[in-house]
Specification:
The complex is a heterodimer.
Chain A lengths: L5 H40 L4 H6 L11 H9 L2 H32 L5 H9 L10 H10 L6 H24 L5 H8 L4 H12 L1 H17 L2 H6 L8 H11 L4 H21 L1 H14 L1
Chain B lengths: L8 H28 L2 E2 L7 E2 L3 H7 L2 H32 L6 H13 L2 H11 L6 H8 L13 H29 L3 H9 L4 H12 L1 H15 L4 H6 L11 H11 L3 H30 L1
Antiparallel strand pairs in B: 1-2
The chains are: A mainly alpha, B mainly alpha.
C-alpha cells in the first residue's frame, strides 16, 4: 500500500467506483439502444411520407402522416391477414393446450409401462428440424385435400407446438401432491372430472405460460404458412407481410406502417405478461 | 401410482388426440421424406425409384456445400457472437443496478418479434440507398464506407449474420442471467472473504459455476443454426447468386421452384441428419465435460 491517508484512499476508491458505475451504465445504454433503435426507427418512419423519409431519416416526423397506415391496412389487405392470424393462432393455441394438457395429465399422474416412452416420443419432437418436414407435409396435405385451408395450417401448428407444451405442463403437474385427486376419486369422480375440476385450475401459471408461448409461436410462424397456403384470403400476417413488402419496395412508409402494426400485439403481450413470455420462450430453448 | 388397476380407456382417450395429431403431422412426414428422397419426382407424374442417386447428386453439388458452409457461418456467428455478447451483458446485469429490470426487458424484446418482421426491418436497415446503416455512415462523414450490404456477395452473409446475432442475443442473456442468479450466495461470499474480486472472481468462480449453461447455450446455437430459413428466405432469398443460401432455403428452392421433390427431400433428410449429428456431437462434448 502506498502511503496515503485513510480519507484520501476512500475518496479515490469512491471515485473509482463511480467511474466504473458510469462506464457500465454507458455500456448498458448502448446495448439497449442497439436493441430498441431498429424498431423505433421503423415506427418513427412509418409516420413520414417518402419524401420526408429521404430528407429527414433520423428526426421525428414533422406532421403525423397517417396515410401509410391506411394504405397498409386497406390496399395491402393487412386487415385480412390480421384476422387470419388471429383465428389461426388462437384456434391452434386452444387445441394445443387442450390436447396437450390432457396428455400431460396422463403422463404426470399415471405410471404405466409405455407411458414413459410415449412421453419421450413427444419431447424428442422438440429436436425435429421443421424444415425437414416441409416437403412431405406439403404432399400429405395435398393428398388429403387440406392445402389452402385453415385446418391444413392449424394441424401442423398443433403438432409442432405439442412437444414443448407437454414438456412444460408435465413437469408442472408432476409437482402436485396426489392426495387431493385421490379423495376426489374416492368420491367417485371420473378421470375427466378430476382433470377439469382439479388439475386444470391448479395448473394456472403453467397454463398461462404455454398459452402465451403457443400464441406467439403461431403468430410469428412463417415456413408452414409459406408452403401450405397460397390463397390470398387465407394468408397469415407474416406471409402477407413478406409479399406485401415485395410489391411495395418503393413505399417505405407503408411497409413500415404494416410492420409496426404487425408487431404491436406481440409487444403488448410481452410488456404486460413478460414473466410468462420469458419463461415459455427460455424453457423451449433450454430443453430444445 | 393410484388407479393403475382401474379401467384404462379414459387414459387412452385423454392421450389419443395429442398422439394422433403429433404422429400424423410431425412424425410421419419425417419418415415419408426418407422415402421421397429415394425417388425422382416432379410432384405430379409417376415416381421413379433412383436409389441413392439424389444423395450422390447432392454431395457432388457445389451449391449444396456452399449452403452447408453458410450454415456453418451462422453457427459461428451464433457461438462467437451471441454467446459472448450475452454473457458479457449478463455478468454486468447480474449486480443490483438501478434499472437492470428495464435493461432485461429491452434485451429480450427482439426475441419475441416475428422473424419475418426482423428480416424486413433489417432488410431496410441494410438497404443500399435509404437504409439506416448507409444513412448513419453519411451522417458521420464516412460516405466512402457506404455499401450495397445485401447486394454484394461478399457482404451479404455478414449482414445476415449481424441480423441473426441481433435477434437472439436477448434469449441467451436471459438464460445466462437465470443461471447466474442460481449461484448460491455463500459461494460468492466465501470467495470474497478469500480475497477474490473483480475479474478474478468472474473467471475463477462465476464462469465455472455456470459452465454447463454456457455449453447448453452453445448447443442451442448449433442446433438452431441448421434451422435457419425464414430470415434468409425473406431477407435475401439466398441471393445474390447463392451467396447467402443455406441448406433449408436451397431445399425449398429445389422443391418448390424447380419442382424436384425427390432432390428436395434428399436435402431435407441431410438437414435432419446433420441436426442429429450436431446435437449428438455437442451432447457428447457436454457429457465428457460433466465427467
Amino acid at each position: 500500500m502506498p502511503v496515503q491517508s485513510a480519507t484520501a484512499g476512500n475518496t479515490a476508491a469512491r471515485m473509482r467506483r463511480t467511474a466504473w458505475r458510469a462506464f457500465v451504465y454507458l455500456l448498458l445504454i448502448v446495448y439497449a439502444l442497439v436493441n430498441v433503435y431498429p424498431i423505433f426507427w421503423m415506427a418513427l418512419n412509418s409516420f413520414k411520407t417518402n419524401a420526408e423519409f429521404s430528407r429527414n431519416p433520423f428526426g421525428f416526423p414533422q406532421d403525423m402522416f397517417l396515410d401509410n397506415y391506411r394504405i397498409a391496412w386497406e390496399t395491402a389487405r393487412l386487415e385480412t391477414y390480421f384476422l387470419n392470424s388471429i383465428f389461426v393462432s388462437v384456434a391452434a393455441m386452444a387445441l394445443t393446450v387442450l390436447s396437450g394438457s390432457l396428455a400431460s395429465y396422463v403422463f404426470s399422474r399415471f405410471s404405466f409401462k409405455w407411458g414413459k416412452w410415449v412421453y419421450w416420443f413427444f419431447v424428442l419432437g422438440m429436436l425435429i428440424p421443421i424444415h425437414a418436414t416441409l416437403v412431405p407435409l406439403f404432399i400429405q396435405m395435398r393428398q388429403i385435400g387440406l392445402l389452402n385451408t385453415y385446418a391444413g395450417i392449424i394441424l401442423p401448428y398443433i403438432a409442432f407446438n405439442l412437444p414443448i407444451t407437454v414438456f412444460i405442463l408435465t413437469s408442472f403437474m408432476k409437482s402436485f401432491s396426489p392426495e387431493i385427486e385421490e379423495s376426489a376419486i374416492m368420491d367417485g369422480c371420473g378421470v375427466f372430472r378430476v382433470f377439469w375440476n382439479i388439475i386444470l385450475p391448479m395448473s394456472g401459471p403453467a397454463l398461462a405460460t404455454v398459452v402465451i408461448l403457443n400464441f406467439i409461436n403461431n403468430w410469428n410462424e412463417f415456413s408452414f404458412a409459406l408452403v401450405l397456403i397460397n390463397e390470398e384470403s387465407l394468408k397469415t400476417l407474416p406471409l402477407g407481410l413478406a409479399n406485401f413488402s415485395g410489391q411495395f419496395t418503393t413505399n417505405y412508409g407503408a411497409q413500415m406502417a404494416g410492420l409496426t402494426m404487425a408487431i404491436l400485439p406481440v409487444i403488448l403481450i410481452f410488456l404486460l405478461l413478460e414473466k410468462y413470455v420469458v419463461k415459455g420462450m427460455t424453457a423451449g430453448a433450454v430443453k430444445g | 401410482m393410484y388407479l393403475l388397476t382401474r379401467n384404462k380407456w379414459p387414459f387412452l382417450a385423454a392421450l389419443a388426440p395429442a398422439v394422433a395429431v403429433y404422429a400424423v403431422f410431425a412424425v410421419i412426414p419425417i419418415f415419408v421424406s426418407f422415402y421421397y428422397s429415394l425417388v425422382e419426382w416432379n410432384g405430379f407424374s409417376d415416381k421413379t425409384f433412383v436409389g441413392l442417386a439424389n444423395f450422390a447428386e447432392a454431395f457432388a453439388d457445389s451449391v449444396f456445400w456452399s449452403s452447408f458452409v453458410n450454415n456453418l457461418y451462422v453457427v459461428a456467428a451464433s457461438v462467437f457472437g451471441q454467446v459472448p455478447i450475452a454473457l458479457f451483458f449478463a455478468l454486468l446485469l447480474n449486480r443490483k443496478w438501478k434499472g437492470s429490470k428495464l435493461f432485461r426487458t429491452v434485451g429480450f424484446l427482439p426475441v419475441v418479434i416475428s422473424t419475418v418482421v426482423v428480416s424486413l426491418v433489417w432488410g431496410m436497415i441494410f438497404n443500399a440507398r435509404r437504409g439506416l446503416v448507409n444513412q448513419l455512415l453519411s451522417a458521420v462523414g464516412l460516405e466512402e464506407w457506404r455499401q450495397n450490404w445485401l447486394g454484394d456477395p461478399k457482404l451479404a452473409m455478414l449482414a445476415v449474420c449481424v441480423t441473426i446475432i441481433w435477434q437472439f442475443v436477448g434469449l441467451y442473456l436471459i438464460i445466462f442471467l437465470s443461471a447466474l442468479q442460481n449461484i448460491p450466495s455463500e459461494i460468492d461470499e466465501a470467495a470474497r472473504i478469500d480475497g477474490a474480486s473483480g475479474l478474478r472472481h468472474t473467471f475463477f468462480i462465476t464462469l465455472p459455476m455456470i459452465w454447463d449453461t454456457i455449453i447448453v447455450a452453445v448447443i442451442l446455437c448449433i442446433s438452431g443454426s441448421l434451422r435457419t430459413f425464414d430470415l434468409i428466405y425473406v431477407m435475401t432469398s439466398g441471393g445474390p447468386g447463392h451467396a447467402t443460401e443455406v441448406l433449408a432455403t436451397y431445399m425449398f428452392d429445389k422443391t418448390f421452384s424447380s419442382t424436384r421433390y425427390g432432390y428436395g427431400s434428399a436435402i431435407s433428410v441431410c438437414i435432419f441428419f446433420f441436426s442429429l449429428a450436431m446435437i449428438g456431437l455437442s451432447n457428447f462434448i457436454l457429457r465428457r465435460r460433466a465427467i
